[in-house]
């Protein structure tokens, strides 16, 4: 499953700079795109980019999340996993150590001797790549990017994201040190290409994958991950809840070029056969360590769902819609006790700090409907997340805060403003929000609207929503639609925030559009395949790709053509036209500049 | 092509109130939806609504644009046309007269004796319905809804929209009189069910249809119109540019329950064989009269593209992208003269007033790329539109103002604020705007984001954008996707504006969701068919529609189920649960309400 063909044009050829170049084989022209690398201060620091080659000889460099899979020079094999890009950086710091680790048990995969499902663990499914021991911080060592940033160190990871974002490494360090950005990078996930989540950087997109008790397989989940990153997912959350959770996660981690997030509570609940009241801190902690040793980069922890807040949800239209939130609420009520996550939060910080796992403090009481938006339950939890964020910071654990959910447009800004205030500007990571409840099957759109707006106002990462939200599990097409929709929202926000360089992409595409460079338009598009396919539906012939009109208006009515004709007829260069037009304009202005004289109404 | 089955469940039966009821035939339960009517002050004033019947015995009333086609009691036939609902209202006013009208000529359909295409007009295509003479205002009579509103008359049309919008007729009259709303209703289009466009009312959606030189047929266009209104289009613009323009329009008008808009310039250009410089005021005026006699309800007029503004576009990234704008710019430059539309605007007002055709003052210089947004060309034209709006008002012509285009999020609000200020709060009618240029094939989404925002801030009607924008002509699926996306944007804006009653729809759907009433969720959805299809993909069996979980999480992990279990275990009614929870909460509060004591940082 190397999938090199998905976005790669028909043939490849060696380019003069020693890199592979994708070409459409048209009269030897090297157009299309190729994977390139921006070199850093050391030979093992190479930041991948997508270089788009235009027919006018120019090229455009785009951010690339697709990993080594789109580099024809790299031989990938999902059974071997990706090469551990960061391993030497981690080892060189000398502050971590390998250790035996927690033994993997059958129940980690949901197979218990007491279970009627019985049987042994399916050994065929065990990840076959190189054997590895987990790694953790040595006693007394603070091994998180936050700790490094605070003491003034610019790590290779920070330099990597600085090159990726086209900013100075010092800005990256500052933002991490201040807690305004996170760089999720578990020491046990050396395969990732580092990325950063923070409001001063490009808005990021997370894609959820995960099997459930009803459907899906390991292979499908790994494939969904590579598929999602190919279209632009910056991180992937593995939300598996069925069997083979541990093994699926191992395959996903070993093959993922992006940070992987999880909700450990889901697996912990599997270990007690779905009975929330049987959950204990020990089982949860064991699960967190299990996942941290595998390399999970960030974990959603619903420690803000406190016993006292549960009654606040009783009059809601849709109660508690977060799975983690409802599990914790059920536990709290069953025991009439404070949440074990809240009570043991400091110990949890110590564990996460040892692996540099980033917190994603979950919003277990997020609204699940327009009616419940911005209510007391939601904001009570947010205040607790602010409190937990400060504790996490004491332990040097990187932290982001999760946000809603379902929120009508006029209530969105309050969410980001309150979160930034209460959580000391920690990165906000929101699900949408969905701006109406009435469009199941189109919730990528209801939420894409809210996502773009909240990202403009400061949300650092958007969790995608697919068309299947509320209805079923997303398939391959749904994952792609969800990612593309959210890349649109993220890029629209980058533009609105005035992110340096963001508009270059739009400008390049609009130039191509105005000049009828159809191939360039396709290659610059967020989804070249669909853009080309739609164009070809009405004008399939190859000459139509160089035609100076398209099927919408036909040759006579094309405004772009008329607009170009105006320029052509009135001079070749823009300045000439402008001069000519300005002259006419002056003549007109001299004549009074208006036809209708002011009228007394 | 009566299409009664598209959104109509399997069987129909006579209900006790004499109306047809759609039912899914499940054990005699009458669920699903049926077409109902709200009765006005007179027997011929019946406002159609979509009545959704829920499994819990409740029902929800939704705005309905689908016309008689979804009423099983009405026998429709596209060859006969719809019955002229407003005819008696128009005649009763006694201020209009029938007259012979302008003879229809072959060239009205793009067939000229000088044309190499030659041949006679295709008589088979002539609309076969009842022969009719056009109608216009008698000399000295002001026959527009604006004129009636200004002199304090509440017309049946105004009462109709008041019932439709659930507001008082006086509010409708006031808003029209003030020029803050338009009620497009040509006296020659008696078939329409009146609707209103204004910021105090529900946000409306327009769908464009129209053949071009490259593709499409008359039948397809009529079918696209009924298809678009079935999914919620409030008006339809026929932007045909190829052959059979006149005849296509006749079929569309006679079968349309919604107002029809056009851009007369497109047909005028056909009459001069696509040579912009050969356009004359006479040819244009003749075309406007031709279309007004047919019944076109609103016309886009690019009278704001003045000679002096053309040079302002010379340094743009994408020049002039409006077809009408580029045609007028070409004409102005070819003759080095002021626009004949601007120069003859007062005479045009007189013509439109005689039929109650509404102006849609076109933004011919709208930006076609992020780079060109909010530039001097765009705003210079907007100022002229403000001037023209005041002139139109003097002639009692209802007027709305068209808006962009491509605009990044942070520049959207300036558009609506300036438009409202400059154009005395005349209704704004915007195309999107698209919030980024980089996603051809997804421009329904790039623009849906901008559309929702600008509608929240006061835009009265949104012109849809389909996935084929920039790439090709929309097919049936694209039209549906475009309409649904824009209904989402419009409804999200209605919610954000706090439109009375808007949230009832969301609440009903969220109640159904929380209570696992799957059939009710589907029937309340903006697109019931796709919602049902997506659900059935993973859980197809009929029992799954009553299952208290779904395929996303499976039975063990369903948060809704857990949330409901919490309620069940802790008391049957909400108040009981609340009490029990509140008691626990008090106990907890008494214990200090926190686990972590304040920590000195």
UniProtKB/TrEMBL annotation, chains A, B:
Region (Disordered): 1-33, 100-121
UniProt biased composition (Polar residues): 8-23
Enzyme Commission number, as recorded: 4.1.99.17
Stretches with biased composition (Basic and acidic residues): 100-112
Name of the top EC class for this enzyme: lyase
UniProt superkingdom: Bacteria
Gene Ontology MF terms in the entry: phosphomethylpyrimidine synthase activity
Metal-binding in keyword set: yes
Annotated ThiC-associated domain residues: 34-97
Residues at which Zn(2+) binds: 406, 470
Reactions listed under catalytic activity: 5-amino-1-(5-phospho-beta-D-ribosyl)imidazole + S-adenosyl-L-methionine = 4-amino-2-methyl-5-(phosphooxymethyl)pyrimidine + CO + 5'-deoxyadenosine + formate + L-methionine + 3 H(+)
Residues given in the record as [4Fe-4S] cluster binding sites: 550, 553, 558
Cofactor binding: number and manner: Binds 1 [4Fe-4S] cluster per subunit. The cluster is coordinated with 3 cysteines and an exchangeable S-adenosyl-L-methionine.
Cofactor list: [4Fe-4S] cluster
Keyword Ion transport: no
Biochemical pathway: Cofactor biosynthesis; thiamine diphosphate biosynthesis
Binding of substrate, residues: 208, 237, 266, 302, 322-324, 363-366, 402, 429
Keywords recorded for this protein, A-Z: 4Fe-4S, Iron, Iron-sulfur, Lyase, Metal-binding, S-adenosyl-L-methionine, Thiamine biosynthesis, Zinc
Alphabetized InterPro entries for the sequence: ThiC, ThiC-associated_dom, ThiC/Bza_core_dom, ThiC/BzaA/B
Biological role stated in the UniProt entry: Catalyzes the synthesis of the hydroxymethylpyrimidine phosphate (HMP-P) moiety of thiamine from aminoimidazole ribotide (AIR) in a radical S-adenosyl-L-methionine (SAM)-dependent reaction.
Family note: Belongs to the ThiC family.
PANTHER family: PHOSPHOMETHYLPYRIMIDINE SYNTHASE, CHLOROPLASTIC, THIAMINE BIOSYNTHESIS PROTEIN THIC
Protein name stated in the entry: Phosphomethylpyrimidine synthase
Classification of source organism: Bacteria, Bacillati, Actinomycetota, Actinomycetes, Kitasatosporales
Gene: thiC
């Amino acid at each position: 499953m190397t999938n090199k063909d998905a976005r790669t044009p028909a043939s490849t050829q060696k380019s003069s700079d020693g890199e592979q170049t994708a070409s459409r084989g048209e009269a030897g022209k090297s157009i299309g795109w190729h994977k390139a690398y921006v070199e850093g201060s050391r030979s093992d620091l190479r930041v991948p980019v997508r270089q788009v080659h235009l027919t006018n000889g120019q090229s455009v460099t785009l951010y690339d999340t697709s990993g080594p899979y789109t580099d024809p020079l790299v031989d990938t094999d999902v059974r071997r996993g990706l090469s551990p890009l960061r391993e030497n950086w981690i080892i060189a710091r000398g502050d971590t150590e390998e250790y035996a680790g927690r033994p993997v048990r059958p129940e980690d995969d949901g197979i218990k001797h007491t279970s009627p499902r019985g049987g042994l663990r399916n050994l065929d499914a065990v990840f076959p790549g190189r054997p590895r021991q987990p790694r953790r911080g040595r006693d007394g060592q603070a091994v998180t990017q936050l700790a490094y940033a605070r003491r003034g160190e610019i790590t290779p990871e920070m330099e990597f994201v600085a090159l990726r974002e086209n900013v100075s490494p010092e800005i990256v360090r500052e933002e991490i040190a201040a807690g305004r950005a996170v760089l999720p990078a578990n020491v046990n996930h050396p395969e990732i290409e580092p990325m950063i989540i923070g409001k001063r950087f490009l808005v990021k997109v997370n894609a959820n994958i995960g099997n459930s008790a009803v459907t899906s397989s390991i292979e499908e989940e790994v494939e969904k991950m590579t598929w999602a990153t190919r279209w632009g997912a910056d991180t992937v959350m593995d939300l598996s809840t069925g069997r083979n959770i541990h093994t699926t996660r191992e395959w996903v981690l070993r093959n993922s070029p992006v940070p992987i997030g999880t909700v450990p509570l889901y697996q912990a609940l599997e270990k007690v056969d779905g009975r929330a009241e049987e959950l204990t801190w020990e089982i949860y902690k064991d699960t967190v360590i299990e996942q941290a040793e595998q390399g999970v980069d960030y974990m959603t922890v619903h420690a803000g769902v406190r016993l006292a807040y549960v009654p606040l949800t009783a009059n809601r239209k849709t109660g508690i819609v977060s799975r983690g939130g409802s599990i914790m609420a059920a536990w709290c009520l069953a025991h009439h006790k404070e949440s074990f996550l809240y009570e043991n939060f400091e110990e949890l910080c110590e564990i996460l700090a040892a692996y540099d796992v980033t917190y994603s403090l979950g919003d277990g009481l997020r609204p699940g409907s327009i009616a419940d938006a911005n209510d007391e339950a939601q904001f009570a939890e947010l205040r607790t997340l602010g409190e937990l964020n400060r504790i996490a910071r004491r332990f040097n654990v990187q932290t982001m805060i999760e946000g809603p959910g379902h929120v009508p447009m006029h209530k969105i800004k309050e969410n980001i403003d309150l979160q930034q205030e209460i959580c000391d500007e920690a990165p906000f990571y929101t699900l949408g929000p969905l701006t109406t409840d009435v469009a199941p099957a189109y919730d990528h759109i209801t939420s894409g609207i809210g996502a773009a707006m909240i990202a403009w106002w400061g949300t650092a990462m958007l969790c995608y929503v697919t068309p299947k939200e509320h209805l079923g599990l997303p398939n391959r097409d749904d994952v792609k639609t969800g990612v593309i929709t959210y890349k649109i929202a993220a890029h629209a926000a980058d533009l609105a925030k005035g992110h340096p360089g963001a508009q270059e992409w739009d400008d390049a595409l609009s130039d191509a559009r105005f000049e009828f460079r159809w191939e360039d338009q396709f290659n610059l598009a967020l989804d070249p395949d669909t853009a080309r396919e739609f164009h070809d539906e009405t004008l399939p012939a190859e000459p139509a790709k160089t035609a100076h009109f398209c099927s919408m208006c036909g040759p006579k009515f094309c405004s772009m053509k008329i607009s170009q004709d105006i320029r052509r007829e009135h001079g070749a260069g823009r300045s000439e036209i402008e001069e000519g037009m300005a002259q006419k304009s002056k003549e007109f202005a001299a004549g009074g500049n208006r036809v209708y004289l002011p009228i007394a109404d």
